[in-house]
Specification:
The chain is mainly beta and 301 residues long. It has two domains: 40 residues; 254 residues, TolB, C-terminal domain (Neuraminidase, 6 Propeller), CATH 2.120.10. A four-stranded antiparallel sheet has the order 1-24-23-22, with no helix packed on it. Strands 2-3-4-5 form a four-stranded antiparallel sheet, with no helix packed on it. Strands 6-7-8-9 form a four-stranded antiparallel sheet, with no helix packed on it. It is globular.
């Protein structure tokens, strides 16, 4: 009887131990649904993959992607001298999207052209102290509009209604061109540079910040803390941006203010000025300013 009881106790102990081990293993292994959920929230950090690099430009400051029907190409502003001198040496070149020259001397005779924007078949250029308007089909300057009290016009953007905004980095302000009148619209934006009109709001890359300005001039910070002064900005979807700093840094900026460094070419002494963006191909075009070249990169996630 005692031997039978011992056998019974031993059987019960083994059964309980096996059950405990099974439960421990089950609790330590994720289920299939948990594994899928974990993998769904994982994201790959954005990065830039080089595509091409073309040299031989003349102090390129800004790149703008332009498409007319099936024909897509790049406008490139060339200062071709000092960025703050009205010397008539500057102009706009055209590159093919493969990086080859289409027309190096498309328009010449500008001063220190920088930011570019298009609307209604016209190219708008921030040219030192003037807003220059070029008829694209004719490749001719059709207007030069002086900005009052301007010193260093830098970037230009146009909203859906055709209102033009131009930054003056040294005057810390933004101009507005509407109904054929160019006037000061916003003041006290330290080192105002890159501009982008999105819906009814204006985004400004200024000093170490990315700002959002509403139509009523309510200003809020999207991101702060760039290591160098911000230059160009491009929206890349989901409220995210790519922001360049002239000294040679490019950031991916999330809508919640997080920043990821995509490129740092300061050691190579290659600037990263006013960038251009092709959303269709996820291609970023980077003018290197004193490097006298343009680089193309593919954005990957």
């Amino acid at each position: 009887m005692r031997f039978a009881n011992r056998l019974l106790h031993l059987s019960l102990y083994c059964a309980i131990t096996a059950s405990t081990i099974t439960m421990a293993i089950a609790s330590s292994e994720p289920t299939l649904s948990n594994t899928k959920a974990a993998s769904a929230v994982q994201t790959t950090a954005p990065s830039l993959q080089p595509i091409w690099h073309i040299e031989g430009l003349r102090v390129p400051e800004s790149v703008l992607v332009y498409q007319q029907n099936a024909d897509k190409y790049l406008f490139v502003s060339e200062i071709d001298g000092q960025g703050n001198v009205a010397d008539g040496k500057g102009g706009v070149a055209i590159l093919n999207i493969d990086g080859s020259f289409r027309h190096h001397d498309w328009v010449r005779g500008l001063n220190a052209p920088k930011g570019l924007a298009t609307h209604g078949g016209k190219l708008y250029v921030a040219d030192l102290t003037e807003l220059v308007i070029i008829d694209i089909a004719a490749a001719q300057v059709v207007a030069k509009i002086p900005a009052p009290d301007a010193v260093f016009l830098n970037d230009v953007t146009i909203d859906a209604q055709g209102t033009v905004y131009i930054s003056d980095t040294r005057k810390n302000r933004v101009y507005r061109y509407i109904d054929n009148e160019l006037s000061i619209w916003l003041e006290d934006i330290e080192a105002a540079n890159g501009l982008k009109a999105i819906d009814e709001n204006l985004y400004i890359a200024a000093n170490d910040r990315l700002l959002k300005v509403t139509p009523t001039k309510n200003i809020s910070e999207v991101a702060v803390g760039f290591a160098e002064r911000a230059d160009g900005l491009e929206p890349v979807g989901e409220d995210n941006f790519i922001v360049s700093c002239w000294a040679g840094i490019i950031y991916y900026v999330y809508g919640d203010g997080r920043m990821v460094e995509l490129l740092d070419s300061r050691a190579e002494k290659l600037n990263t000025a006013d960038i251009g963006w092709d959303a269709q191909t996820q291609t970023l075009y980077v003018p290197t300013f004193l490097g006298n070249s343009v680089k193309a990169f593919r954005l990957t996630h």
